[in-house]
Amino acid sequence: MANILLLSVDRSLAERIEQAMNGRATVDMAQSVASDLPAGPAVIVIDRTAIPPERSITAAIAAVAEGAGGRAIVLATPDCDADEILQAVRAGAHDIIPRHGEGGEIAGILWRLLNEAVSEQNRGGRLTLVLGADQEAAAMVATDMAVSRARDRSPTLLIDCTMPTSAAQAYLDVPVSYGMAAAVGDMERLDASLLSSALARHGPSGLLLLTFDGGTGTEPVGIGPTDIAALVRLLRTCCAEVVLCAGSLRHAGLLKDLGTQADRIDLICAQSIRELEASRRLIDRLGSDDAMLAKTRLLVWDHQPSVLLDGRRMADILGISSVHALPVDAARARNALNAGQPIAMEKDGGPYMQAIRKMCGIQPPAPSAAFARIDRVRRAVRRSLERT
């Protein structure tokens, strides 16, 4: 839960701030920041009426800022005079709230600062960026990765930026009514509680889904690359695992920002000169520096050993050291997508899911005793046939 330290003796002000935050923030009252500074991300609110008349606002805010440890400072004042606001900002205040203001006005400012503090001080969950020239293939891989992680760990969020409609939504077969534009609009008050109630959820796995179009089938308007990058930073603080399918995103600055944030980058590419060239352009947009390439893996979609353009040659052309074969049963994958039943939910996903789980670091379940006995008999029969 978020922390707000109120430097005041007015209990009614503390109650008003708690009501404005709708119970999703803890408000503690104190006389100074020296002994009662909350651990972790927090916002410090200074009550203007608690500052002695003989002491200036500048001196009071400067003293608090000295011991605030970089935490945001807000001045709660009954009189929003322009000169007083200017003095407060120059002294180190990050914003001003009206002491007797409406709950929405107070909450909007405090949530924005709290979320900024969380993003800066808490890197959050693990971020995997999945991208590729074939957007549908990239969305399937991202979805199966996310479902596998949701079943192994929780909570997990899948963000699909495929346009104009989400391939991940079709693959999961879940209704979506909350998209990227709505999440950007809710950033000032976004937390794990709001996410769990607003986002679409895949019932069998518990995976949360956020799509670019929000189920409308149209590209959202009014959001830019910086909004998306800031939203991803904030969402990481709410979930242990975030899988982001870049889909149709091609803005070089945004891709570079997302790549810098990511703990792992998975590039999906088939054994095709055309897709290889498209993947090379994606790498260029990411920024082909050593740090970026070091955390990038090449996943060879529908790997066929008989194709001369093998994974190692493709990785060398792209400057990537890590390469993994991803065998795909094309008919099975198409049927799973059309039916809205991810292969990750099947008991036996075949070589494809074995590769996905291995890349996710998920250990396969131990075989039962009966299965082990059958396997031993099968191996013995195979050895006897080989001898004959």
Q: Helices and strands, in N-to-C order?
A: EHEEHEHEHEHEHHHEEHEHEHHEHEHHH
Most strands sheet: 8 strands, mixed
| Outline | elongated
Approximately how much beta-strand content do the residues carry?
A: 15-25%
Structural class: alpha/beta
Head-to-tail CA distance between termini: 69 Å
Radius of gyration: 26 Å
Summary keywords:
388 residues; alpha/beta; 8-stranded mixed sheet; 5-stranded parallel sheet; 16 helices
Report on the architecture of this protein.
- This protein has 388 residues and is an alpha/beta fold.
- The chain has helices at residues 11-20, 57-66, 82-91, 103-121, 135-152, 167-172, 180-185, 192-198, 225-236, 252-261, 273-286, 290-294, 311-318, 330-339, 350-359, 369-387; strands at 2-7, 25-30, 42-47, 72-77, 95-98, 126-132, 156-160, 200-202, 207-211, 241-245, 264-270, 296-301, 322-326.
- It has an eight-stranded mixed beta sheet, sandwiched between helices. A five-stranded parallel beta sheet has the order 2-1-3-4-5, with helices on both faces.
- The protein is elongated, with a radius of gyration of 26 Å.
- The model has no long low-confidence stretch (mean pLDDT 86).
